[in-house]
UniProtKB/TrEMBL annotation:
Species classification: Eukaryota, Fungi, Dikarya, Basidiomycota, Agaricomycotina
PROSITE patterns reported in the protein's UniProt record: PEROXIDASE_4
Domain Plant heme peroxidase family profile: 47-252
Domain of life, source organism: Eukaryota
Keywords, comma-separated and alphabetical: Heme, Iron, Metal-binding, Oxidoreductase, Peroxidase
UniProt key word Oxidoreductase: yes
Family assignment from sequence similarity: Belongs to the peroxidase family.
Gene Ontology molecular function terms on file: heme binding; metal ion binding; peroxidase activity
Name the UniProt record assigns to this protein: Peroxidase
Amino acid sequence: MITHDAEAGTGGLDGSLLFEMDRDENKGAISFNETYAFLGSMYSDALSISDITALGMYVTVANCGGPILKMRAGRVDATEAGPSGVPEPTNDTPTMVARFAKAGMNVTQMVASVACGHTLGGIHGNDFPEIAGPGRSNDTDFLLFDSSATRFDNKVVTEYFSGNTSNLLVVGPEATNSDKRVFLADQNITMQALSTPEVFSSMCASVFEKMMDTVPSSVKLSDPIEPYPVKPTQLDIALTPEGNITFEGALRIQSGDRENVDDLVVKMPYKDRTGNACDGCTIETRPATFQGGFGSGFGGSFKFFQFSTSLPASTSISNFNVTIQPPNSSDIEIQDNNGVGFPIDDRIIPLQDQSCINEGPFEGDENKWNMTIVAAIRDELADKPVKLEVAVKTPRQGVIIPAIIKQSVQMEPWSDVENFKTAGYTLFKASFGLLVDSLQSSYDVVSGEGDEEVRKVFVGTGSLISKECKPWA
């Protein structure tokens, strides 16, 4: 984010580093690319590499014993390199101060960002042989900033004051002692404050969050993300040839101070497609069994409850609430998603059983796999154009993360099978040639255009790879 221009509102955490690996100021391209290759497995049409980078910082700091940062979403990836201007070890103090000021950081924040950033990691000798010194310039030479370089603590500060620091940006060649110049920029005032562990943790959290949230002025980030008390997850809705809707998934319930979570009675009262409730409109759940049904993260611990049910397609489901009743209690907690219920849209239903991705060639192209997608469209939408939009991961020269480009094909009624019109739905089908790099991707099914558009978004393709497309029977 250091190349951010606060006055102009440009740059920041926008992924432009991907296009800047060849710059001398960004030494260590191999390490950068290894990191992005790892993070890139999460990159998708719904999650930018910029958000993933911020999330990586959140997870790394927490995993290493640091503070829990506030994580926001909504960063937008740049499509080209940004301006240069990353501070270098040979820069003098006025240059450093000016560079951080342009990015919107004062001297205190500059000192804190460097000290907090260097509590982990070190210098790669092969990238900086002039700093590492003789005999330490191999790709295996990694020279640590402090004695606990995998632990988030303030030893980078205390060892600086005690005179036994291993930080070569403090005690290395004078010309490249950039950390020392930064720390002394305010006569060690900030470093003295950071020598207290509690202050170190709070100041690091503040400056890291500022760095994570430094984005172009055109980008509006979300509020800090907090775990929901109840979150529906892994939801799947399907249509059967018999005219039923199958609905299954899980509920993630924050354990918190709850007692006997295994014995909670969790139910899902729901409303039908028209928004009406009924006495029998309740879905039962059961405790999940995988890993004991428990999960945990930096946001706390969770208990999972599974459900699977079949509903008449003629009435279906539009939304549901969640009721939680402790054992041996008449108290019932209602989670209603801020009064609107948890919505279910059944107008477009991708049929994963009838969909598949198999090895090519596709229309004579050996490089493409055959992707077949079938979706059930409500009859009131079936007279409008229906298309399949696929998120295609497209390689970019010199950039390890591919571009994601939406490509579309028309879907046609699957009229060569019996019952292609079932229970108020019409089945549509499309074929698409998918490159190997995009096998793990996503697709949308779209009915109509403009104000009449209805879209089922971000349907994953991973479960379709090398499986049989089941017949509709």
